[in-house]
carnitine O-palmitoyltransferase
Amino acid sequence: MAEAHQAVAFQFTITPEGIDLQLSHQALQQVYLSGLRSWKKRISRLKNNFITGVYPASPSSWLFVVIAILATMYTRSDPSMGLIAKIQEHLPVSQSMSLQCQTVVSAVLFSTLLWLSLIFTMRLCLKQLLSYHKWMFEQRNKMSTTTKVWMALVRIFSGRQPLLYSYQGSLPNLPVPAIKDTVKRYLDSVRPLMSTAEFERMTTLAKEFEGGFGNKLNWYLKLKALWASNYVSDWWEEYIYLRGRGPIMVNSNYYGMDFVYVTPTPIQAARAGNALHAFLLYRRKLNKEDIKPWLLRSTVPSCSYQFERIFNTSRIPGIITGIKIYIFTLFISFPLAVDAVVHWQDSDYVAVHHRGRYFRLWLYQAGRLLSPREIEHQIQRILDDPSPPSPGEEKLGALTAGDRVPWAQARKEFFSSGVNKRSLDCIERAAFFVTLSDDEHVIMGDDPTPCLDRYAKALLHGKCYDRWFDKSFSLVVFKNGRHGLNAEHSWADAPVVAHMWEYVLATDCFQLGYNEEGHCKGDVNPSLSQPQRLSWDIPECITQSLSVAQALADDVDFHVITLRDFGKGRIKKLRVSPDAFIQIALQLAYYRDRGMFSLTYEASMTRLFREGRTETVRSCTSESCAFVKAFEDVCHRLFRMACDKHQNLYRMAMTGAGIDRHLFCLYVVSKYLGEESPFLKEVLSDPWRLSTSQTPFQQVELFDMVNHPEYITCGGGFGPVADDGYGVSYSIIGENIINFHISCKHSCPQTDSHKFGALIKKSLTDLDQMLSAEQKAARNEQNTGGNSTQAKKDL
């Protein structure tokens, strides 16, 4: 009650003598300072919007143009060729404004219009320059003259000191490929997976589609591309993520791990204190747009729009019901309720879960971000709270882990009003979600693999009810100080979350640090109010969701491999792309495991385009299959061909010439038109039995891998896409480390994550030995040839 009284700024009582008004100066000060923080953020946002809006020019360049125009006029020249005089003629004239003043105002208006025209021209030029992608297919040390000139022009038109979103208006739109090109690439990708009869049948379907219905569908996509920023992204988010009715736990959400070989402090509250403070520091940088845009080869910008929804974001469940109408010849179904991603402008608290109870933890006091030590103190208060969960509260989070329809129905029936709605709003509007787990995960021993496997499963699904899987991300802090991340997938892809996570890990250990006792540094303000316990009135409505989620979690088989003596540096010495090397190794491992090849998914980014997300690289190619089959004969030439083909496919996917997103959008249009395409139906029914993704390590400069090699994250992973397939996430860290996260399902007798992991390690070793032997033989041959030449000269 004391906290509630402190929150009241004033009280008044009506008495016979009049109104007795009592003011709380402390509370009024808190209100004032909180409002001041809010207005500072609004002003900062307006300032950033203006700076981004005029980029690649700067606000100061306007003053330069004005001064240049006025100086030219002072020399009795007219740089506007009569336009300033025209503006002066139509200028509303005031009696108090002299002729000279009117001339100056007209010149300033002309200068402003000229300045805006120059900005528009520079943006248009930069947009056209960024549409050039041949640089992607050239080696850095063998760039053509055209590419070198192009890179110089991009640097000239890119301006200086860009903010996070400065390049958004200059990025080109994702192009719509020609039907014939996509069909040709598709047939090339499935050729090694089909028999001759199956391939001939598919070729016939593809040619019929290409010559008829496909062109009509592509016309609608081109129409959409004219007015939409990206013809794929909105449909991808809605149909792939938000319309899915199955559980998002395991099937969609993914996780990120802590440092593998070190835990900075064994105190749970202290680790949470530093981590929460670091997250809010990152959000402050994000709000100020003080994060450098990601530049490929230090020149080419990528899209940053996914950063907008990192914080204060939640997925809201919905039930699919809809109305159907015709617009001209277009048949459209409008869903009235489907999952939605909702983002709030700001939130100054986090939602915390501990032992089945939910708390609201304020992270600001009087507009000031709490110090790590103060946050640790507040977390410890939650850990020390002995109160039991209220009825139905303990396993409430299972609603977000199970099927979406029961969760949407329960939300509508039990959480649409009263105390339940207020508490649910508190969780959904929180900056992010925090789980304080009573479990411990210690990575120890010469072989930490079993510990890592359990740690991965704990982060992916936990107990199925101790996460809020709908939040943009949840921080999980274990009892012994180790922590990790679980992220919802619909709002952004893993590289965006990984960028934030790298910053948090580095800031936690290398900037904030801990004292000798393992506590956060700093002092505690004794006037901090208690974390607020959330109240609920919940019937027993979560049994079904929990049973579905528990069955799914129990079925997941996980295996984590960390290779500390086999990394990018070793692969580059073999003169091979590290990603291509790993993908060929995965093909070799899968063939050894199953005795067959499978359609393989590798995620590639399309952030070179505005609002770009991902594209599929079909890693199982005719070249890779030919090499795997001939591996026992040690065919080096086939390996090089397979790697070159993979690199080419990856680059084509990045530059908008992929296969699957185009086919997906064509399928969506066909559904809107109410017409079936046998070709598209068969294409989109193919299962991805080997789904792979590389999580890039982006901020190497934040870590000291030479002096502190133990402060290295193990990356993250995801669940299997197909019930009879594998999910493989890998991260290449520095020159000497590669981490693999392998998932499959126990219910499938043909899959085994540990067996597949062993095959991956063997395939990597075999490829390394093959290429090393090739290099050694080439050197010996070169030395022999050199000696023979020298002998001839001596004779």
User: Anything to note?
Assistant: Residues 753-794 form the longest helix (42 residues).
